[in-house]
Amino acid sequence: MSKAILLSGGLDSIALAYWKKPDIAFTINYGQKPALAEIKASAAVCTSLRIEHNVITVDCSALGSGDLVGENAISLAPASEWWPYRNQLLVTLACMRGVGLGVTELMVGTVKTDAFHADGTEGFYERMNQLVSYQEGGVRISSPGICYSTTELIQMSQVPASILLWGHSCHTSNIPCGNCRGCHKYLYVKQQLGYD
Asked: Could you say which residues form the signal peptide (predicted)?
């Protein structure tokens, strides 16, 4: 029985990994432009926290939309980085790998400010949990940080800056662009925490 986390290398998933200390982390390269930087940040966190790190590569870039794939978002997009059904895809891929590794719980680093995306809400993760736990393997999906903002999650987890600042939040590149919503969030949270 193992606990796992979807570790994107962003601030939310790093804070959650530090707080919950899972046995296994899954970082998924699904064709997003900043995949290499996300993998590098996640690997550094896993090494520091002694978490087994698994990288899953499945190229879904032909199905993407917006900043993460490097094109305009489709008309349904609530934000420029929207990728249709992304969180459903990522949870499914992690569970596919995890069930063979004895994973019984998969944690997702969603925070309350992600709720402007349908797949960032409590209702979405409750439904994913029902669906995934119904299937063979009975993996449970949880989102322990969903009632916190990113800043609150970081403060509550007490993750040190020396680990947190490995995070990569840019949506458009392996080198932070400084202009996308992910980069703005990273800078805002650093300021809120007094890291400037």
From this structure: none
- CA–CA gap between residue 94 and residue 138 (Å, rounded): 13
CB 94 within 8 A of CB 61: no
Q: Is 83 in contact with 66 (CB distance < 8 Å)?
A: yes
Rg of the chain over all Cα atoms, to the nearest angstrom: 15
Which residue, among 79, 53, 75, 45, has the nearest Cα to 162 in the 3D structure?
45
pLDDT category at 184 given cuts 50, 70, 90 is very high
Q: How far is CA 133 from CA 56, 99, 137, in A?
A: 21, 11, 7
Asked if residues 7 and 45 have their Cβ atoms less than 8 Å apart, the reply is: yes
Dihedral over Cα of 104, 109, 110, 111: its sign: positive
Pick the CATH number of 2-192 from 3.40.50.2000, 3.40.630.30, 2.60.260.20, 3.40.50.620: 3.40.50.620
DSSP per residue, 37-91 = HHHHHHHHHHHHHT-EEEEEE---GGG--STTTTSPPPTT-SSTT--TTHHHHHH
Express each pLDDT in 51-68 by its tens digit. 999 999 999 999 999 999
Domain definitions of the chain by residue range: 2-192
Are the C-beta atoms of residues 3 and 103 closer than 8 Å to each other? Answer: yes
pTM over 0.85: yes
